[in-house]
Amino acid sequence: MRGLKMRALTQLAWLTLLLLGAGSGPGHALDPEHQRAKTMLGELCGRCHAVGETGKSPEPLAPPFRTFGEKLYDTDFAQRLQDGLTTIHKDMPTFRFSRDDAAAAVNYLKSIQKSK
Fold it and tell me: pTM surpassing 0.90?
């Protein structure tokens, strides 16, 4: 009986480790599209914004991209990226994305949003 309990506990421990390791979160491998989007956003926006799942923005007033939340679920966000995203912030340049780059950026940004 004791051997059966130990085997069940061992299997439960392995299952727990597998489930914890298979999920998303900091340190998980990005698929190629997400990696491309993260690199692109890092080059364009990383001077001011934190573009990953962790870390502070280099510019204290620039929000980390993982906190954009509802802004990303706006149905025209990808289109605004294609048309040329502008803001009232005087130091932020206007960026114009291709359709594929806009879709990749939005998908990546959605994937890193922190849950509330």
Answer: no
CA-based nearest residue to 53, from 30, 21, 22, 26? 26
Whole-number Å distance between alpha carbons of 109 and 89 = 20
- The CA distance from 95 to 102, in Å, is 10
Residue 103, H or E segment: helix 99-111
**Main-chain phi, psi angles of 115, to 5 degrees:** -75, 150
Ramachandran category for residue 112: left, alpha or beta (phi over 0 → left; psi -120 to 50 → alpha): alpha
The two tokens of residue 5 are 């309990």
Question: Can you give the pLDDT of all 116 residues of the chain as single tens digits?
Answer: 554 444 433 343 333 333 333 344 444 467 899 999 999 999 999 999 999 999 999 999 999 999 988 777 777 889 989 998 877 777 888 889 999 999 999 999 999 998 65
What would the two tokens of residue 80 be?
């605004």
Which amino acid does the sequence have at 93? P
